[in-house]
Amino acid sequence: MCYGLDRRNNVTDEVHSGDFVFDLIYNTFFKIKKYKQKSSSHVGSNDGSMDRGNWTNKTEYMLSMIGYAVGLGNVWRFPYLAYKNGGGAFLIPYFIMLAVAGIPIFFMESSLGQFCSQGPVNVWRILPIFQGVGVAMVVVSTLVGIYYNVIIAYSLYYLFASFQFPLPWSDCFDWSNTNCSLTPRGSCFTIIEPILTGNMTLWENHTCPEKDIISIPIQSPSEQYWDLVTLQRSSGLDETGPVVWHLALCLLLGWLLVAAALYKGIQSSGKVVYFTATFPYVVLLILLIRGLTLEGARDGIEFYIGSKSNLTKLAESEVWRDAATQIFYSLSLAGGGVTALSSYNKFHNNVFKDALTVCLTNCGTSLFAGFAIFSILGHMAHVYGKPVSEVAQAGFGLAFIAYPDALSKLPISPLWSILFFFMLLTLGLDSQFAGIEVLSTCLVDAFPETLKSKRSIISMGICSILFLLGLPCVTQAGIYWVTLMDQFCAGFVILFVALLELVGIFYIYGGNRFIKDIEMMIGTRHSIFWLWWRACWFFISPAIITMILVWSWLTFRPPSYGTVQYPAWGVALGWCMITFCLIWIPLVAVWKIFHAQGNPWKRLCAVCSPVEGWGPYLDVHRGERYADGGQVDGKNSVQLPEHNHYQMSKQPNTPLTP
């Protein structure tokens, strides 16, 4: 049931309130329109919806979904986790978690979006009391979008800096300080005053005994370039400092690229992903081939996933937690993007096959990226004469310190650096497209008649606002803000939202009813087919998420960046971010109950049932189960009180017209 707003008409029919947050914002300025029945004229060829829009073809959807799922974490997090947690042994818990949590939740979210052709807020017409879960997804997508584009700005800056020879971080140039060095430094502790020669202290023309050498802390050129040039990093969150203008300009360019790709919604972004979703694979293949030809590459791969795999690590609970967490975050679950992108599918698209393909492709990419990363890190370790364990890092340390350092040691180093950072750029843009599409889809679904023709304005408006909100992240304390938002916004909130999704759909709406909804799209399946999915949806997936939540809570440590600890007010602000994301869940639930009618029990029962008109977006797909807009499998839907100016429609699932 899609609704819009109009300035001219008073409310006479019963209309569901729809998206809570947007209603609060716009209700002061607009009135509700009346409904118009969806006729066959709204149905496009091949099962599509003409008025809401669909993907031009299946390829665009698959590339967009793969681009959304395959992000920076596949390159800079998974390889390090695999090395840290036993190498090849880590694949055992990793693929087990994929089977019992990753694929089932991905299948659920994509099925829900495709079934009702609505974004992550409006899909909760399936269960009005949980509509705050959809609002929480939108808030999370907003906060993640703010800092994620800052990481894209980092990639852009390094991409531009790579058009130099030699690479600016390949040696200690004039921007560095006295702590910069390519080789270790030591001081010889002796009774006689030492004589310092180069990077090693000698004593009376004799090499200092190893037992008397005291190491002097140094930084590599790539580390100093990251801190002193790129970030111009301050001493902590308390010292904000001015805006770093080269990063601000890169941030602006990043948002311009996102706005241009989303100018016409999925119709334009669907064309862009032909390049952005496929180019990273080309680069990874090139880097892998080049890496395998380097001396020391074998050592890197052995550390990553070779003969040095440690099966005893499987007995450690932390390994299983890391595997489950990586699966969850790498598939971008519970962020609203999966639901939003799948909502533009044709109704009878095989959503199960697509979910399986995307999930396996995502995990295969992580595995493949590890070989490309560790083959070159192995060469770097060989050059420095260090074990791979001393050069392997995760996150920013891998993407902007360790790997650029390794690339600077290769012949024609600018070429490899350009390819690598352009790959990071395309990986980031793909994920950002879907995150911003969540926001625009929710707005257009809330007010289709008003906003449908203004897609370009919406996209530019969202990007402009998020650019301004992201400016604190490109100050000299910006990296501390990025780290803070990443740890809090993308942690507890997403896990909690995913748990509520499972509880709401399978325990309140009804797992059997939801399975029947899926079969309306993909056809009837044998009961044996659903045994595995029932087990995962009802028991295994909720148990795993609960385990991760509890473990994360018990092992929580205040965030830090390197050796810099966050002040108490910074940690408190992080918890405020979590509260701001989750507070909408109880607020919307209370608001829904308050506006229902009857005694408290009847009100609770009402908001725990689908709204009138819930079901497939087009009438041609509703079939016998949803033929009556007020009945779902013979059960009554939500009825809101007549005195409420948001009321229900007599016609099922239809847009509003004057």
TrEMBL record:
GO biological process, one term: amino acid import across plasma membrane
Protein name: Transporter
Main location: membrane
Transmembrane spans: 90-108, 129-160, 243-263, 272-292, 327-344, 356-377, 415-436, 457-482, 488-510, 531-554, 566-594
Superkingdom of the organism of origin: Eukaryota
Localization per record: Membrane
GO CC terms, sorted: plasma membrane
Species for this entry: Esox lucius (Northern pike)
UniProt KW keywords: Disulfide bond, Membrane, Metal-binding, Sodium, Symport, Transmembrane, Transmembrane helix, Transport
Membrane topology (UniProt): Multi-pass membrane protein
Family as reported in the entry's similarity comment: Belongs to the sodium:neurotransmitter symporter (SNF) (TC 2.A.22) family.
S-S bonds: C172-C180
InterPro entries membership: Na/ntran_symport, SNS_sf
GO molecular function: (R)-carnitine transmembrane transporter activity; alanine transmembrane transporter activity; beta-alanine transmembrane transporter activity; branched-chain amino acid:sodium symporter activity; metal ion binding; neutral, basic amino acid:sodium:chloride symporter activity
This protein's record includes keyword Metal-binding: yes
Cross-referenced SUPFAM superfamilies: SNF-like
PROSITE patterns with a match to the protein in the record: NA_NEUROTRAN_SYMP_1, NA_NEUROTRAN_SYMP_2, NA_NEUROTRAN_SYMP_3
Residues binding Na(+), per UniProt: G67, A69, V70, N74, S330, N362, L427, D430, S431
